[in-house]
Q: What sequence folds into this?
């Protein structure tokens, strides 16, 4: 006999929000919403482990909106005060959170604003005038506004750090510390992170007061609905294999990760030569170009979106079925973030990694992080070449030779683990 689903009403949300959620077609709360919302409503600090696509925006957004509906304030014309501050790592995520929060707050008088780089400071100044109930911001642009005194952070009641691990990975810790110095120590702090390692916890506990920990998935885990596969292949044949997979598997929408901006642009052009509509998105492109690339991908005008880790952060792509690691990530935690783009909301997803010989250490780090061995398959016609040291090449060091012998041994192991496709 199945259990009766928990409802938003049972979580303590008021009738206005319940009606709004019903209009949006949101029926039952997700696990992170079930666990976090009651604690947020009670004013507690919350440390939440939740991956992208789990409904974390509503987990902090709904109780914030309810709090400000129940405790309205009168904004004065010259006010610069902010009641709640939501910090995010990228402008794409800022816009995504803004859209969601405004949808949840429909029919209320709450003022919700987003500020981020790549857009006019003057326009943002106008939006900030008179104070804001909920401000969504990237750290850099927030400090820009604080510097010109277009906002006042001393009375922030609630601080939300969304995708906090990504902010730290992107080097925002100094900016975050500058922001924290401007905030009241009596604030409520909500800390949301996809990964939940000791480093993340150490940072969280330094800025929070006796937080409640909630976690909907094990630390550094991947969604159960995501099938993972590793294809060993020579580096020079990766593009050929990717084109083969897209064509033979009839993938209509695939997000492909590369490690460099130049690599993303080059791969997109090479795929076009193979007859595959592709577009790249990276930090070298303007905000307008990045948005157009994303819109074209969502609309099905292109089959492959080639992205770097930084450019992909905050991208909102619903029902994405395939993710490909064209280059293995530098950090094992990035693997979790990458493949977390697929298999959302209980839907099936596929995460494929194209593994060259020199990327073996990255694979080992990922498997240690996940505490599991990823399945591998050698595709017929794309089997990797043996690693053989040139007889006439000088020996650089005994350590280097040992490394090559180790790599050769690993290749033999892969031969045993791999299953050649027929």
A:
């Amino acid at each position: 006999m199945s259990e009766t689903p928990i409802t938003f009403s049972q979580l303590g949300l008021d009738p206005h929000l319940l009606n709004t959620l019903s209009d949006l077609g949101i029926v039952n709360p997700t696990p992170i919403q079930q666990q976090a919302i009651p604690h947020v409503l009670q004013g507690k600090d919350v440390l939440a482990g939740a991956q992208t696509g789990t409904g974390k925006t509503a987990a902090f957004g709904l109780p914030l909106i309810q709090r400000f509906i129940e405790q309205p304030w009168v904004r004065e014309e010259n006010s610069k005060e902010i009641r709640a501050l939501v910090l995010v790592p990228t402008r794409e995520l800022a816009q995504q959170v803004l859209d969601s929060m405004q949808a949840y707050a429909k029919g209320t008088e709450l003022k919700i604003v987003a500020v981020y780089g790549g857009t006019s400071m003057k326009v943002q100044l106008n939006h900030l005038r008179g104070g804001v109930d909920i401000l969504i911001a990237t750290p850099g642009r927030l400090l820009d506004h604080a510097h010109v005194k277009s906002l006042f952070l001393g009375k922030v009641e609630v601080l939300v750090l969304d995708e906090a691990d990504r902010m730290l990975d992107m080097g925002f810790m100094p900016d975050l510390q500058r922001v924290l110095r401007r905030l009241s120590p009596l604030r409520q702090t909500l800390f949301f992170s996809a990964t939940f390692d000791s480093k993340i916890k150490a940072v969280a506990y330094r800025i929070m007061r006796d937080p409640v920990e909630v976690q909907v998935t094990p630390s550094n885990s991947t969604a159960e609905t995501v099938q993972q596969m590793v294809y060993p292949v020579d580096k020079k044949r990766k593009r050929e294999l990717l084109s083969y997979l897209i064509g033979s598997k009839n993938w209509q929408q695939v997000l492909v990760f590369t490690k460099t901006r130049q690599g993303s642009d080059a791969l997109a052009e090479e795929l076009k030569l193979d007859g595959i509509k592709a577009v790249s998105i990276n930090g070298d492109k303007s905000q307008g170009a990045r948005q157009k690339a994303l819109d074209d991908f969502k609309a099905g005008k292109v089959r492959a979106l080639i992205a770097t880790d930084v450019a992909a952060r905050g991208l909102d792509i619903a029902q994405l079925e395939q993710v490909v690691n064209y280059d293995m990530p530098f950090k094992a935690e990035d693997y979790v973030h990458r493949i977390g783009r697929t298999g959302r909301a209980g839907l099936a997803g596929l995460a494929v990694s194209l593994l060259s010989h020199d990327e073996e250490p990255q694979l080992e780090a990922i498997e240690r992080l996940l505490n599991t061995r990823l399945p591998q398959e050698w595709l017929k016609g794309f089997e990797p070449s043996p690693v053989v040291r040139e007889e006439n090449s000088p020996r650089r060091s005994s350590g280097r030779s040992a490394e090559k012998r180790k790599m050769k041994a690993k290749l033999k192991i892969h031969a045993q683990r791999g299953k050649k496709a027929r």
Q: What stands out?
A: The chain has two domains: 9-215, 226-384. The two ends are 44 Å apart (CA to CA). The domain at 226-384 is CATH 3.40.50.300 (Rossmann fold).
